[in-house]
């Protein structure tokens, strides 16, 4: 049957050539759209490395002092405020960060040198640093590369650093990074890698980048808080249960003076989800526009392919009717027509693959967020050809269904 179909396609190569060209162009364009959509969706659904459920960010300010008595230092004020909030039974955990909170647009970078790793990489670039108190890892449920809590590994460790999986692989390829020593630039102070976290992403549309966390405790905590100021701390609070904004306002009212430490006080709250929505608003708008364009093109492709094969079958009504007169079975004839259309589609596969290789060499295909794996090629090409195959079958089904029901006299008339 296939040999006969190939012979018929070759004998009708003039008309089939135009159909093949249309299928080739549509398949290439549709594959690019599906591949782009695939990269966006896989990236979006990949783990972020942290959890913001029930997390609120408290806004801090400082009032002017009206007395002449010496007040608390900046680190003491922030520490006292954190402890007062943590004592509330509704609170799960409290942490402080400086320009390092998720979805905060924090963007601090620093050079770091491994003492017994690949220092050639560190000398050529800087890495994003996140200054956080150790409770950060418990509050945001950050796991290590083995799926265990990072907080258990950094708690009580002096001068502790936490590096992401990408940074550990960069500095110590194929080796254990935990327990190794690093230092900043040319400074003599040495820090210990207390844990290797899972991949950390800035948001749902970006890939994980090498980064590290500086745990703020002891003298480093005092230096950082004095440098930035307690009022600029990003105070994050995770509640034990989901609360609405009205519930949180009642919570603040119940706290009373415990939201004040010396002249440092809480003056407002914002759910972490709101920061996420602000940061993703532009990207989600771009995704919506991209999806609308893809849907519009799919509708055009749908009607274009269906119309092409519908017209092709209408022009072959005489051939179909004559085959019926000569004894061809209806179901067999329908299967023959489906197979012929799908063969035309299959012939475009090698050229579409060649088209994809050219796009890959020109860096048009996104291989930065997702590598071009065999699974990615199979999924995107499979989806492309399944969609087009379904359109071809639908375009053939109705006119062939009508043609195989013609009376013999009508079939001979067409022929």
Percent in strands: 15-25%
| Tally of distinct domains | 2
The major β-sheet equals: 12 strands, mixed
Low-confidence stretches: none
Average of pLDDT: 85
Share of helix, binned:
40-55%
Tell the overall outline: elongated
In whole angstroms, how far apart are the ends? 23 Å
Radius of gyration: 32 Å
Contiguous helical run count: 15
Q: List SSEs in N-to-C order.
A: HHEHEEEHEHHEHEEEHEHEEHHHHHH
Q: How many β strands by DSSP?
A: 12
Which structural class best describes the helix and strand composition? alpha+beta
Please provide a written account of the structure.
The longest helix is centred in the last third of the chain and has 44 residues, at 272-315. Helix 2 packs antiparallel against helix 10 (272-315). Strands 1, 2, 3, 4, 5, 6, 7, 8, 9, 10, 11 and 12 form a twelve-stranded mixed β-sheet that branches. The radius of gyration is 32 Å and the shape is elongated. It has two domains: 2-47 and 281-414, no CATH class; 65-262, no CATH class. It contains 15 helices and twelve strands. The protein has helices at residues 2-11, 13-45, 74-86, 119-122, 135-139, 151-154, 165-171, 218-228, 245-255, 272-315, 317-325, 330-346, 349-361, 374-403, 408-414, and strands at residues 55-62, 91-98, 109-110, 112-114, 127-132, 160-164, 181-184, 191-197, 211-215, 234-239, 260-261, 264-271. It starts with a helix and ends with a helix. By secondary structure, it is α+β, with helices and mostly antiparallel strands.
């Amino acid at each position: 049957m296939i040999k006969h179909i190939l012979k018929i396609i070759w004998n009708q190569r003039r008309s089939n050539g135009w159909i093949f060209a249309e299928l080739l162009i549509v398949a290439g364009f549709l594959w690019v759209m599906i591949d782009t959509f695939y990269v966006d969706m896989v990236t979006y659904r990949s783990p972020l490395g942290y959890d913001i459920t029930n997390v609120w960010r408290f806004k801090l300010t400082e009032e002017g002092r009206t007395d002449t008595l010496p007040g608390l230092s900046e680190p003491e004020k922030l520490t006292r405020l954190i402890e007062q909030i943590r004592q509330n039974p509704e609170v799960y955990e409290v942490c402080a960060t400086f320009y390092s909170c998720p979805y905060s647009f924090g963007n601090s970078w620093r050079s770091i040198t491994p003492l017994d790793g690949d220092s050639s990489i560190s000398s050529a670039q800087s890495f994003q640093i996140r200054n956080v108190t150790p409770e950060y890892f418990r509050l945001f449920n950050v796991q290590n590369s083995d799926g265990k809590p990072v907080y258990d590994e950094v708690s009580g460790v002096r001068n502790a650093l936490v590096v992401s999986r990408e940074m550990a692989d960069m500095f110590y390829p194929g080796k254990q990074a935990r327990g190794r020593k690093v230092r900043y630039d040319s400074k003599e102070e040495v820090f210990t890698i207390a844990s290797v976290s899972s991949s950390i992403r800035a948001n749902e549309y970006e890939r994980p980048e090498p980064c590290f966390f500086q745990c703020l405790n002891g003298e480093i905590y005092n230096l950082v808080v004095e440098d930035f100021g307690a009022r600029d701390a990003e105070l994050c609070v995770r509640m034990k249960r989901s609360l609405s904004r009205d519930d949180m306002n009642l919570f603040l009212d119940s706290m009373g003076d415990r939201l004040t430490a010396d002249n440092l006080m809480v003056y407002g709250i914002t759910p972490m989800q709101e920061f996420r929505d602000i940061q993703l608003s532009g990207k989600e708008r771009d995704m919506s526009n991209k999806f609308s364009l893809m849907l519009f093109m799919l509708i055009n492709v749908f009607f274009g392919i269906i119309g092409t094969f519908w017209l092709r079958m209408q022009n072959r009504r005489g051939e179909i009717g004559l085959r019926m007169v000569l004894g061809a079975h209806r179901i067999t004839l329908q299967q023959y027509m489906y197979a012929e259309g799908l063969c035309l589609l299959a012939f475009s596969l090698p050229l579409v693959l060649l088209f994809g290789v050219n796009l890959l060499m020109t860096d048009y295909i996104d291989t930065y967020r997702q590598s071009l794996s065999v699974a990615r090629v199979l999924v995107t090409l499979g989806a492309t050809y399944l969609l087009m195959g379904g359109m071809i079958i639908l375009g053939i089904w109705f006119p062939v269904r009508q043609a195989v029901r013609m009376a013999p006299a009508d079939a001979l008339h067409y022929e």
